[in-house]
Design a protein that fits this description.
This protein is mainly α. About 80% of the residues lie in helices and about 0% in strands.
């Protein structure tokens, strides 16, 4: 049927028209059965036609099929992409080139499986918008294979992420064990130093002994602060990794309409529970190290700006923020990441407390100097 119409139409066409070469190529395919000559005319046409032309898209797609017949996959891929881009520019919602491109990527470029799934879904949406039943049927036959492969790749990635999370958890346990061991060694070393100081007490001047003891206590505080900050930094990074992982999985699921997997990770309860547990443990650990922190923080504030005490072994949000500042975590973005707040919320809390400070100019600096001799108080107790 196509060959009959082409025989009648070709003599009537204007040879100067850019689309003439396209139809001449079609004539060589359907009438003369000469693919080499057809390719010659297609290439002439594509040089003359603007990319925003519908004939450009048709010519590029015809060229892609022509090269596919010669098993030239490199040019097949190139002109499929050209045809797909031209279809988008022309806004005709023609999806055959994009559909074939998705199938080609799935078959020959496994690393492009995400794009293959996206292109086949776009093709399906375009076909549905025009109720093109034949196209819908064609895409429906290809879609399950591509989606199945995509889900398999996602499952593999999820397994890898699970292993990474397990490894991070094990490293966290090892780190906690190491910190505990270091604390014990420091305690033993402090005891040994005191014993040595007692042995040489008669050989040392009292002022020299006091200076040495103060230096040792300050060094112990510095080491302790560094270890606590390291622990908090690692916790913050771990929490961020979990949050980023949840967001990534949710985004991919939504994009590909995999509802079952979306329902598995869409709940934010785990992050909230982790945040509550972290804050509780942080409050207990911090107040054990700095038992006078709440009292000393209030001493820096005016009488009518005192912060309420939330209870034993507990810190309020404002107190918790300045506890982190005392440990050296001063950036609002870092504090927000650790406490599961937005940077703006942290900024608002800091501004509110700073307004109540006696010394507003260097309030953060004064917070960094409180509880310097916390270990002295613990030893005295």
């Amino acid at each position: 049927m196509a060959s009959a119409y082409l025989r009648k139409a070709m003599p009537l066409m204007d040879k100067r028209a850019p689309e003439y070469d396209y139809y001449k190529g079609e004539y060589e395919v359907y009438v003369e059965k000469n693919d080499a000559k057809a390719r010659h005319y297609y290439l002439k046409a594509i040089k003359r036609l603007p990319r925003a032309s519908r004939y450009y898209a048709m010519t590029a797609f015809a060229l892609a099929l022509n090269y596919l017949g010669t098993k030239d996959t490199l040019h097949y891929e190139k002109y499929l992409v050209e045809a797909s881009c031209s279809d988008v520019i022309c806004t005709t919602k023609e999806n055959l080139a994009l559909q074939n491109l998705a199938t080609y990527l799935f078959k020959y470029h496994k690393d492009q499986i995400n794009n293959a799934v996206r292109y086949i879904n776009i093709s399906m949406d375009d076909a549905k918008s025009y109720n093109a039943r034949l196209r819908i049927l064609e895409i429906s036959q290809k879609l399950p294979t591509i989606v199945s492969s995509y889900e398999s790749i996602l499952k593999q990635r999820n397994n890898i992420l699970t292993l990474i999370n397990v490894a991070v958890a094990l490293l966290a346990v090892l780190l906690m064990s190491a910190i505990y061991y270091i604390f014990r060694q420091n305690k033993k070393m402090a005891l040994q130093r005191r014993q040595l100081a007692d042995n040489y007490q008669k050989l040392s001047v009292l002022n020299s002994q006091l200076g040495t003891d103060n230096t040792e206590l300050l060094n112990t505080n510095i080491k302790r602060d560094r270890l606590v900050k390291l622990y908090i930094d690692l916790c913050a990074k771990f929490i961020n990794r979990l949050n980023n992982y949840t967001k990534l999985v949710r985004r991919k699921i939504i994009a590909n309409q995999v509802k079952d997997l979306l329902s598995t990770v869409s709940s934010s309860r785990l992050s909230e529970e982790d945040a509550t547990i972290f804050r509780t443990n942080f409050d207990k650990c911090f107040l054990a190290l700095y038992p006078t922190f709440k009292t000393e923080l209030n001493s820096l504030l005016t009488d009518d700006g005192q912060l309420d005490d939330p209870g034993e072994d507990k810190l309020s949000n404002e107190q918790r923020i300045y506890a982190l500042i005392r440990l050296g975590v001063k950036e609002s973005s870092e504090i927000a990441s650790v406490l599961f707040f937005s940077p703006q919320t942290i900024y608002n809390y800091r501004s509110s407390v700073k307004k109540k400070a006696k010394n507003k100019e260097d309030f953060d600096g004064e917070v960094g100097k409180i509880c310097v001799n916390a270990s002295d108080m613990q030893h005295g107790a």
